[in-house]
Amino acid sequence: MSVTVKLSDELIKEARSYGEVYSRSVPKQIEYWSRIGKIAEENPDLSFDFIKDILLGQQQAGAGETTPYKFGA
Q1: pLDDT for the residue 59
Q2: Where are the alpha helices (DSSP H) in the chain?
Q3: Where are the chain's structural domains?
């Protein structure tokens, strides 16, 4: 579902800059920030890097890019 939202010019400018670095469009960059912020707010004890690793792991698992963990190896 699409919704039109008014955002500040400064936020758009920052999203454009970060989006170019990470190969994301402005809307995708803002969605990414929103998702990270929501997770961080719901889990205040998790670091930013840990949250990114969780999201990466979820993406890899969804794409079938997993290997079994061998305990005691």
Answers
A1: 92
A2: 9-21, 26-42, 48-62
A3: 9-57
